[in-house]
Amino acid sequence: MPMNQEEMDHLRHSCAHLLAAAVLELWPGSHNAIGPAVDDGFYQDFDLGERKITEADLPAIEAKMRAMLGTWGPFVTREVTIEQARADFAHNPYKLELAEEFAAGGKTLTENNPGGFLDLCKGGHSDNPKEEIRHFKLLSIAGAYWRGNEKNKMLTRIYGTCFPTQAELDAYLNQLAESKKRDHRKLGQELDLFTFSDLVGPGLPLWTPRGTLMRHLLNDYVWELRRARGYEQVEIPHITKKELYETSGHWAKFSAELFHITTREGHEFAMKPMNCPHHTQIYARRQWSYRDLPQRYANTTMCYRDEQTGELHGLSRVRAFTQDDAHVFCRQNQVKEEFLKIWDIIDTFYPAVGFTRLKVRLSLHDPENFEKYLGTPELWKEAEESIRDLARERGVEFAEARGEAAFYGPKVDFMAKDSIGREWQVATIQLDINLPERFDLTCIREGGEKERIVMIHAAIMGSIERFMSIIIEHHAGAFPVWLSPVQVQLVPVSAKHAERTRELAGELHSEGIRVAVDDADETVGNKVRKAAGQKVPYIVVVGDRELSGEEWSVRVRGTEEQVKMGKKAFLEKIRLQITNRT
After folding, report:
1. Side by side, which strands form the sheet with 295-304?
2. For the domain that residue 12 is a member of, what is the CATH number?
3. Do 406 and 373 share a structural domain?
4. Binding residues for Zn(2+), per the UniProt record (predicted)?
């Protein structure tokens, strides 16, 4: 029977213990810090003193892990006092810090000792490590500040993965190799879509003309779909007084993740990390009648979060990101219709960008940790049942994920599987019963009384930066024709054909086709290879025959063969692909 996620996490966390034991055996005097299971694997942080290790050391560490694994028995967890923990980990400042913190917070301290390796750990391990954690691989090394705080010491983080079987491990390693070829950071530079500057700062991407064009094509399509369903565009500033977030509840929960601004007069502001509190104030500018609802606001705008430097990753994790955000303010009896309109947008948009089937996940709150959420258990139960009903009415299969809700309400999350099998959370629809309460948002009902409204949050792409990273890797840079920055590359055979080729490019441009001309003093073969490397959908070599009206020889992306096609038929083919967004 396949392992569930909890069992997989226990397997990988156990392997992190084995990694810690091996490193401390290889380099006595080192200290292990934390070693959790993470998506697709695990990591372990180390203070190695003056020792610097590289990925060339990973095979030796793996060999030590395999040698030690034969001596490991079950993980046996025992409770200890803070005095015992202090004695056991007197040599390890990281374990001591955690033990003191846990004890001060009233938490039980537990240790385990498989294979003679004593560690401070709350549990969650493999039942039979000698047999179960054999199929592992160490992957990479990175730096990580202790507890994510750049004021603390930089530790050495070793990443690895572990699976129940060798076949699953091999499949994952093959997927990993393919993902490296598709890495959006590499392709983004090669295709000239975006760049980063040390002078601007990490996590702050700069978009080139080609990358900006793609962003606008995507966002314009989302707006086209929204406008057809009654949305109106709004605009908001990029900063706010902290009082807005105090009222919304964001300040108490996320103030450490905000960029703070103090004015000359001493007022405290923040760069906006999300748009919904601002949008509540657009709704709150007047008292609305029930006849005026729904109010549908759409706003594509940049947001900012003070992410830790070590957590930044290309476009996937940045400090400045753009949300294609929308909020609907409506009555409770309008929620179903508004949800389904957004769902229609998602079902239309995603096939056009290459994802033909999305999974649906209902992201719910965790009742055992209710302090993380706004509102009451009764409100949450009602809201979560309403989104279940919507998913059932839509006729889709769905999974439920406890603990994945936003702090103000449950979500319908849409999951896309990319071309190499990785799953990504993309679009989301969120039902919010808490912000209307906190901001006292109402409408006047039929009898003249005030009625509390509800709020729906809708992001089709979410962070456009993160979404771009997903589709770059999904398509390996070979985007659908409608989305390709250059759709046709014209290659003049020689200098004498260059002027007429540029005139031909003007004709294609007037037909709404994005075209480029490579008239460099190079061989035709070299120019064709460059265009192929840029993933251009169509390459046309222009010589005497093409300019005299004969059929064109068109090289189609992904093939070596050339297709014979008349100019008129070629233009019609591309126009249809643009119109149909294929």
Report:
1. 232-233, 295-304, 320-330, 454-463, 423-432, 411-417, 358-364, 398-402
2. 3.30.980.10
3. yes
4. 276, 327, 457
Residues 17 and 136 in one domain: yes
Burial class of 109 by CB neighbour count within 10 A (0 to 12, 13 to 18, 19+) = buried
Determine whether the annotation assigns residue 457 to a binding site.
yes
Same domain membership, residue 284 and residue 395: yes
Q: How many CB atoms lie within 10 A of CB 359?
A: 15
The answer to whether residues 322 and 315 touch, using CB atoms and an 8 Å cutoff, is no
* Residue finishing a domain among 419, 449, 475: 475
**Residue numbers annotated as active site:** 276, 305, 323, 325, 327, 411, 457
In the predicted structure, residue 115 carries a pLDDT above the cut 80: no
Q: Are residues 326 and 439 in the same domain?
A: yes
pLDDT value at residue 1: 63
CB 248 within 8 A of CB 276: yes
Residues 201 and 175 in one domain: no
How much is the pLDDT for 579?
Answer: 94
Q: How many Å apart are CA 460 and CA 222, to the nearest integer?
A: 7
Mind listing the pLDDT tens digit for each residue in 492-547?
998 899 899 999 999 999 999 999 999 888 998 999 999 999 999 999 999 888 88
**Residue 223 in this model has a pLDDT that exceeds 90:** yes
pLDDT tens, residue by residue, 284-324? 999 999 999 999 999 999 999 999 887 889 999 999 999 99
CA distance 541 to 558: 16
At residue 580, the pLDDT reads 94
> How many domains, in total, are found in the chain?
3
pLDDT, tens digit (0-9, with 9 covering 90-100), for 254-291? 888 999 999 999 999 999 999 999 999 999 999 999 99
Confirm whether residue 276 is marked as ligand binding: yes
Close Cβ partners of 521 (under 8 Å, ≥ 6 residues apart):
495
Contact status, residue 74 vs residue 127, Cβ threshold 8 Å? yes
State yes or no: cis peptide before 436, omega within 30 of 0. no
Question: Averaged over 369-381, what is the pLDDT?
Answer: 82
Average pLDDT over residues 557-568: 87
φ, ψ for residue 393, nearest 5 deg: -65, -35
Quote the Cα angle for 75-133-68, to 5°.
Answer: 75
CATH code (residue 566): 3.40.50.800
CATH number at residue 368: 3.30.930.10
Nearest to 100 by CA among 87, 82, 118, 112: 82
- Of 161, 180, 199, the domain-final residue: 180
- 104: CB partners within 8 A, 6+ apart: none
Full domain range(s) for residue 74? 5-180
